[in-house]
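Hey, does this match?
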Amino acid sequence: MKHTRVLIFTGGELSPRFLDEVQNGDFIIGADRGALYLIEHGIKPNLSVGDFDSIPPEQMDQIHSNSGKVIDCDPIDKNLTDTELAFELALEHSPESIMILGATGTRLDHTLANIHMLIRGLQHHIPCSILDENNFITLTGSSCIVENKGFTYVSLLPLTTEVTGINLEGFEYPLHDATLRLGQSLGVSNKLAEDKGTVRIEGGLLLIIQSKDR
């Protein structure tokens, strides 16, 4: 069965409001402690994956009995993080989109690695996003529509050495055939002027980060 969307709940900072993102027909993956979080909040993941090295045996029993399938990995002998394992499995379903929740937190290395995974989605022509309490992160290599999701700012940051041919419509500060380079802050803290804005680029990879202060 082809699923329209895959939701990955992973082991970073999770919020109860993320549970509102779950829709009928979603394929839900719990990565490590993300699986336990889902089950404790009454949602049975279709798939739970990870090394589960921080989860006691009684809670592992709970994960096994409340998941459609469990993939248990050796914590020492694996080459991927739990989130990347879940992401690779999500790609195998060829969904229309993938959203990762709990992909940010106190570990900056994990946060950056998870943001970089969005490139893998583009390579498979699957729109991917990361949602946390204060940010909604997407990546484009061509064009995309930015919808108002209740965040204050929209920042554009290059993920390649430079991003060329940037054109913005529907923003307070439009850009026309602009170039952004790594290390520049020109694209930070823009705002939507309408309910939707359009971002178009000619070359490179551009992070689009909708954000708000706490």
About this structure: The CA atoms of residues 115 and 130 lie 8 Å apart. The first helix runs from residue 33 to 40. The helical segments are 33-40, 57-65, 82-92, 108-116, 118-123. The chain is about 20% helix and 30% strand.
